[in-house]
Specification:
iron-sulfur, Ubiquitin-like (UB roll), Elongation Factor Tu (Ef-tu), domain 3, Rossmann fold, five-stranded parallel sheet, 8 helices, 2Fe-2S, iron
Length: about 325
């Protein structure tokens, strides 16, 4: 779908907010807190950005983009965009939804990872739900939405942590995550190291895996393919597909006419998550936790490969 950039402003150091609307003024497709859109940036680049406005709004979408100095092209291209330009985007998809059975939500954000978290905060506040927000940033000038977090519905639920603050005022994940319960859910988004630390701390504190939700916004550089091929077998029809050296499983399946939905193609979003019935995957994603990887019952064919000559997939 085509959208128009009707407003662009700097909301923190290196962070630009873009307000997107239908060029004809039509209502936008509905979305839920935690959802993202694919943005066709330029020259074939597609990037995923979380929607950070209130999900009750139907007239617009808002995304925030960090100008990453180590960008692969996406953030630089977005920061060159100006008001009045048009973009092609997908309809919203949500791989990071709020749990419907949560008695209390812990929202944990690091840096630009605040974008889906703030939308979740809007939704929970409007429902009168029980929640708390913990937001870490380099400093006040690098933190987005400070004015919104200071408003009455979020102010008493929000704790801010800055790298420029004394050590005693910085986030202690062990304290925040010290009291898990079956009715409590954790949502964490931010840099990979931040997410890994939060998930590890939660697991050590006794949180249930199903109550810990996370969303990465970028992937680590993926290792190149193994020097050799392997075979995947589709369990539902016993068909076999050869995967060549340096070939992605998703590409080999596509050539064979087997459709698996993909989005980020970086092992971040989990869209292509596929069941594994036999064999040992070579996990190269940023989506599965260490504990989930050890089970070897799922993998992401957009980036992961196989350590064994045969991998049997639940397809």
């Amino acid at each position: 779908m085509k959208v128009k950039i009707v407003a662009r402003r700097e909301v923190a150091v290196g962070i630009a907010a873009f307000e997107l609307m239908d060029p004809r003024g039509a209502l936008m497709p509905a979305f839920s807190a935690g959802a993202h859109i694919d943005v066709h940036v330029s020259n074939g680049l597609v990037r995923q950005y979380s929607l950070c406005n209130d999900s009750r709004e139907r007239s617009r979408y808002m995304i925030c983009v960090l100008h990453d100095p180590e960008t692969r092209g996406g953030s630089r291209a977005m920061h060159e965009m100006r008001e009045g330009q048009t973009l092609e985007i997908s309809e919203p998809r949500n791989h990071f939804p709020l749990a419907s059975d949560s008695g209390h939500s812990v929202l944990l954000a690091g840096g630009i990872g605040v974008t889906p978290i703030v939308s979740m905060a809007f939704s929970l506040a409007s429902e009168g739900a029980s929640f708390e927000i913990h937001y870490c940033a380099r400093g006040p000038s690098h933190a987005a939405f400070l004015d919104r977090f200071a408003e009455p519905d979020l102010r008493d639920r929000t704790r801010l942590y800055f790298d420029t603050s004394p050590a005693c005022d910085r986030l202690r994940m062990q304290d925040v995550l010290a009291t898990p319960s079956t009715e409590k859910h954790l949502y964490v988004c931010g840099p990979k190291g931040f997410i890994d630390a939060a998930v590890t701390t939660a697991m050590e504190a006794g949180w249930k895996t199903t109550n810990v939700h996370r969303e990465h916004f970028s992937a680590d550089p993926m290792p190149s393919g193994e020097a050799g091929s392997f075979t995947v077998r589709l369990a539902k029809n016993q068909r076999t597909v050869n995967v060549g050296p340096n070939e992605r499983v998703i590409d080999a399946l596509g050539k064979a006419g087997v459709f698996v939905p993909v989005s980020c193609e970086e092992g971040v979003c989990g869209t292509c998550l596929t069941g594994v019935l036999a064999g040992e995957p070579d996990h190269r994603d940023s989506y599965l936790t260490k504990r989930e990887r050890t089970k070897n019952d799922r993998f992401l064919p957009c980036c992961s490969r196989s350590k064994t000559p045969l991998l049997v997939l639940d397809l």
